Amino acid sequence: MSEDTIATDNPLNASQESALAAIVGAMIPASEEYAVPSAADPIIFADILTLVKRHPEPVVEGLAALDDIAESRHGGPFSALGDEDKAAAIAAFSQSGNQHLRAIVSMTAQCYYRDDRVMASLGMEPRPPFPKGFEVEQGDLSLLDPVRARGRIWREA
Amino acid sequence: MAEQPVDVLIIGAGASGAAVAWSLADTRMHIVCLEQGDWMNPAEYPSSGRDWESRAFGDMAISPNRRGRPTDYPVNDSNSPIAVANFNAVGGSTILYAGHFPRFHPSDFRVASLDGVGDDWPLDYETLEPFYAEDDRMTGVSGLSGDPAYPAKQSVLPPVPLGKSGDTLARGFNDLGWHWWPSDTAVATAAHDGRDQCINLGACTSGCAQGAKASTDITYWPHAMRAGVEVRTRCRVREISVNDDGMASGVWYYDADGEERFQAAEVVVMACNGVGTPRILLNSTSEQFPDGLANSSGLVGKNLMFHPYASIQGIFDEELDGFRGPGVCIWSKEFYETDESRGFVRGFTYEINRGRGPVATAMTGMMSGRIPWGAEHHRAYRDLFCRITGMVAICEDLPEEHNRVTLDPELSDIHGIPAPKIDYTLSENSRRMLDFAVERASEVLRAAGATDIISESPIAAGGWHLMGTARMGKDPARSVVNEWGRSHDVKNLFIVDGSIFVTSAGVNPTRTIQALALYIADQIKKRLANLFD
Ligand SMILES: Cc1cc2nc3c(=O)[nH]c(=O)nc-3n(C[C@H](O)[C@H](O)[C@H](O)COP(=O)(O)OP(=O)(O)OC[C@H]3O[C@@H](n4cnc5c(N)ncnc54)[C@H](O)[C@@H]3O)c2cc1C
User: Fold this and answer.
1) Is pTM, for the whole model, over 0.95?
2) Using the 8-state DSSP alphabet, how is residue B305 labeled?
3) ipTM above 0.90?
4) Which residue of B242, B253, B259, B494 has the fewest C-beta atoms within 10 A of its own C-beta?
5) For residue B517, how far is its CA from the centre of ligand 1 (angstroms)?
């Protein structure tokens, strides 16, 4: 029962999942220079899939648009293309202005930029804001001197 | 099922419902507030979790349509360039508000006399001043006294820190000789009335886990309840009923189990905000009031004002506050008053909104094409991370009857109550003001050192100020409530939320909404002996 539930809960089939992994990996690849994984890293991608389960429609639609591009430019569905054609199809999709791109970008960004390794690379502590909070400088209130010197600006009514 | 009659029934436990309940509590009347939402648990707010930015796209989204909690009602805003934002809970939309807390300016109450547009308010700044001050104490307003853009007013707590962002932009304003001042905010910078001080979590618009932001569930409500006011949550009002004398007799509502109930009341106070209040009034039809309750003027739902917003952000070379600190910081009133040489009437406030978190940075960068896909992503991202700061321009929206809330003929909430439908267009005056605001803000950002500018105008998701749909006034043909909030048509029906605004001013509305709610409560208390005359 539980296996069935998990299987039917997943809005993406295996080839859609692998197409999505290819998209997010192309969007944010790993970098040695910055010591960060790619967005297709197993931990981050699992996180992305959890979000996709909550809002599958735009992703499924976006993947269908990717298939359309693959079909029209390379003569077959995305899953059947070779690596070079896949990369070209993803590049065309990323430039397509497709209305569902935003959702895919958003879900990828949401999961990538909360990964411990990525936060560490940005100099952030891997923790939520609460309860420790953050320091913010008080700033220099003497900057107000010219504003005070100019005097009242409110309008009599 | 019917309940024992109560003296005062308040609908809605948000900014205004809380203030009016607290003030009326000293009468010792039997006061009940029906609220469709829940009590929130601050420990569960997003900033306690690693997914804090993500939840702003989900269960803590500002759009009720996106959030889709069972406590929300849908809003059809497809015919508006600006989408409605709200929150439905004890505390209402203050659960999510940013905490910008400006007062109106004296001129805002007299726009017809001064500038020949809109209408004058039936009251003035001086009349509201003591109620502003009372609201400031209850809220714990942080700010710096002496702002030359206002008549003298005291702050309760010190101002929020300028931070690197405020400091940088203040220098830009000074370079151009333009006004700026630390903002008045509803964010406590020191412990106040049982609340703790701000620790710069930076996620104010998803609820404040620290309790430093003055949402009314933690300001007015605890006091009102200690004084005997009862709040019933998960109670959604469908309509107000009337008796043969044309007086409100009580309300029909659905309780937490979905049971239909009737609550009889001597006085009904609407506090459902500028969209929720006209929705319920329009849904309260009867033989005596076929066009909806309190609607003999035909103005219920009309004159909806949002405040068109522009967002203008600069990209800087040096690191700024980024994800740290409240979104409130400094403001500028340089372009607040009318100067017709600018090509529009009335004006706007700039509010500097500090920075953004790591996810929002990626979204901004990728959607604006500044962060490419592929190997270059990381370098381009780091060029933006903690390097964006800027401002929003809050433009005065003038009342126009064709901007309105009606009942949607098809869409309804889970109880079958018709959803509100919004029809709204940006006026030519607003468009010009927005364009001007973007240009001037770009100048100040460049003067402060910005190397690039990103702007959005109007902010499509920015319908967070809901005003004007049951305006106040002395003339029953031109207004829905009188100068102290009582319906012209139904003498035991009061409205205290943003619906009663005559004009919108160029500032965030909540401090004025609450000052008005306190003023109306005071008028009710003073007139108890002959309230219905
Ligand atoms: C994201 C965001 C940011 C904001 N930032 C600022 C800011 O910085 N400064 C500022 O001044 N303002 C800000 N606002 C606006 C501010 O929150 C509102 O002006 C203020 O809360 C309005 O007060 P109100 O009492 O009119 O309505 P609300 O606070 O919205 O309260 C209305 C209440 O009525 C309840 N209700 C509605 N219909 C029914 C019904 N049929 N039955 C029972 N209950 C009902 C709702 O559930 C809700 O709790 C912001 C709002 C949002 C959403």
Assistant:
1) yes
2) B
3) yes
4) B259
5) 13
